[in-house]
Amino acid sequence: MAKTTSTPEGLFDIDGLLTDEEREIRSVIRKYVEARIKPDVADWFERGEIPAKELARELGELGVLGMHLDGYGCAGGGAVAYGLACLELEAGDAGIRSLVSVQGSLAMKAIHAFGSEEQKQHFLPRMATGEIIGCFGLTEPDFGSNPAGMRTRAKRDGTDWLLDGTKMWITNGNIADVAIIWARTDEGIRGFIVSTNSPGFQANLVHRKLSLRASVTSEIVLDNVRLPADAVLPGVSSLRGPLTCLSEARFGIIFGALGAARDSLETAIRYGMERIQFDHPIAAYQLTQKKYADMTVEYGKGLLLALHLGRLKEKGTIRPEQVSIGKFSSVKRALEITRECRSILGANGITLEYPVMRHMANLESVYTYEGTHEMHTLVIGEALTGIQAYRV
Questions:
Q1: pLDDT of residue 392
Q2: Where are the domains positioned within the chain?
Q3: How far apart are CA 289 and CA 191, in angstroms?
Q4: Which of 237, 226, 233, 236 is nearest to 120 (CA)?
Q5: Catalytic residue numbers?
Q6: Whose CA is closest to 171, among 95, 246, 92?
Q7: According to the model, what pLDDT value does residue 2 have?
Q8: Element (H, E) at 251
């Protein structure tokens, strides 16, 4: 037997690349996930239910909702600290990280970046505590990868706006107090802060999901929803608005997906040390150790890339195509790692007694949302060639 053991992160000496504050934030979130999320998340996943409003309050107390935004009750943390929080949350479940991501990087980010001072003062402090939950309505039933084709429309009616359309695959939709809805107007693509209590606003829960079951997913129907003039986000009138928010959310996924990979890898290593076949633990066999080695190297490479991109973001120099590289890399690596870990667990790997197949199923959604894997492939291709292949 080996005289020393190490964790996957320990082999890469990741702690040496982090500040004291980043390590402390990671530790706080990891302890929360171990104590609050992991004991119950398999049951939430199986039932397709989650105490989202309760969790939002707790996450607000931890300071992770909008933690990378400045002012208005937000923590103003660095990009790497936020990324590490996403990693630890997704080590619990992608649904928990999605709750935080949609709240902070989509709904709060939209108000923070494009809202009026009055809107920021009114909404952001209460969203940071989890008192108000937000959702983000961009994707439509027929327009996912091509948001420019959206059919949701807002038109002026005196000083008011009338909003009509349908949004699909909206995380937090049924529990949200406010929805950031993007719509086509005569003035371009505008964002609106919509109270979910508004007449004509309806959220329909998506049932029978096989992925992200510990998450609220909804269809939003907008039927002649009347909004006051001050519901519009004044700071943008183009797709730059939602795309800016999406880029923010994708950054969290770069780290988050690796959390699912790490939790699966650590589970597979523990299982291999305990599972006896042919009088030896399966971790003692060369084929199993090769799997461990391959997965650990891929995980470490992914984490090093994520940290590099985080430092670029903190310097303000990160580019959208670099975010695409990170999302492309992390989710692909994480899916491959979780599938390999499932093979080590054998038949036990398909049950909710272990987290691996739950992570694998969740990653199938992460592979698609915030830009499909194919779209990020073409973004990278365009950066290399100058050719927009998705328009051919």
A1: 66
A2: 8-128, 134-231, 240-391
A3: 51
A4: 233
A5: 370
A6: 95
A7: 47
A8: helix 240-274
- Six token digits for residue 365: 């959604």
Q: What is the pLDDT of residues 124-181, one digit of tens each?
A: 999 999 999 999 999 989 877 778 788 999 999 999 999 999 999 999 999 999 999 9
Closest CA to 303 of 21, 86, 75, 65: 86
Structure tokens at 64: 């992770």
The CATH homologous superfamily to which domain 240-391 belongs is: Butyryl-CoA Dehydrogenase, subunit A, domain 3 (1.20.140.10)
Neighbours of 366 (CB within 10 A): 25
Architecture of domain 134-231: Beta Barrel (2.40)
Contact yes or no for 97/162 (Cβ under 8 A): no
Residues of the chain with pLDDT under 70: 1-4, 392
Distance CA 245, CA 110 (A): 6
For residue 158, the tally of other CB atoms under 10 A from its CB is: 7
138, 189 contact by CB (below 8 A): no
**Phi, psi (5° rounding) for residue 194?**
-115, 125
Q: What pLDDT was estimated at residue 39?
A: 97
> Across the chain, what does the average pLDDT equal?
94
Closest CA to 87 of 173, 20, 171, 14: 14
Contact 203, 173 (CB under 8 A): yes
Structure tokens given for 175: 């529990």
Separation of CA 5 from chain center: 32
CATH of domain 8-128: 1.10.540.10
pTM of the model: 0.94
What's the rounded Cα separation, in Å, for the pair 29 and 219?
31
Distance CA 47, CA 213 (A): 8
320-345 vs 240-274: helix crossing angle, rounded to 10: 20
In the chain, the largest separation of any two C-alpha atoms, in whole Å, equals 80
Judge whether 126 and 178 are in contact, CB under 8 Å.
no
Cα–Cα distance measured from residue 213 to residue 210, given in angstroms and rounded to the nearest whole number:
7
